[in-house]
Amino acid sequence: MLLRKFLVILMMSSLSLLFGCGTTVTPNDYASEKPVLDLQNYFNGTIDAWGMFQDRSGKVVKRFTVVMRCTWQGDVGTLDEDFTYSDGKKQKRVWTLKKVGPNRYIGSASDVVGEAVGVVSGNALRWQYVLALPVDDQVYNVNFEDWMFQMDDKVMLNRAVMSKFGIRLGEVTLSFTKRVE
Fold first, then answer.
1. Which tens digits make up the pLDDT trace of 168-181?
2. Are 118 and 104 spatial neighbours (Cβ–Cβ below 8 Å)?
3. Domain that holds residue 28
4. Contact 130, 114 (CB under 8 A)
5. Model-level pTM?
6. Whole-number Å distance between alpha carbons of 126 and 159
7. Which of these, 29, 5, 64, lies nearest to 147 by C-alpha position?
8. What are the percentages of helix, strand and coil residues in the chain, rounded to 5?
């Protein structure tokens, strides 16, 4: 039974690689979009966010809010996130971001495997990483590709696709609002 599941996943991954090689969106596609995202400026101060996770069928299976307290010291930033889920559970994630070149960032957090890699262009940030995601009594390493788009000086929208072995597992949608302090 386990071998059969593995073979099905392997076959689907191969098909997804074979037929999924269409046009790929890159950060440069947003180079002329405004407002220009200044990551160190936007993620500085307190940000409130509202989000949801949808499984691959599109069903919303989790809703949550996040309060982010963000600070920078030179080219190193800390994003301290407090999640509250609709079922009452709470979670904390603290990101450390580092600017490593023009419009290029790396990041780490306790549940991120290796480093996250980010590229900013125009109003967009593409953020890619592997997250150690606890599900029931197991932890799965899943790939995330986040696209964040700054809408104005206060609002940013985020869409993240989760995948494993090239298979889309679901999506996370977030709306950020920067507090005026």
1. 999 999 999 999 87
2. yes
3. 2-178
4. yes
5. 0.85
6. 10
7. 29
8. 15, 60, 25
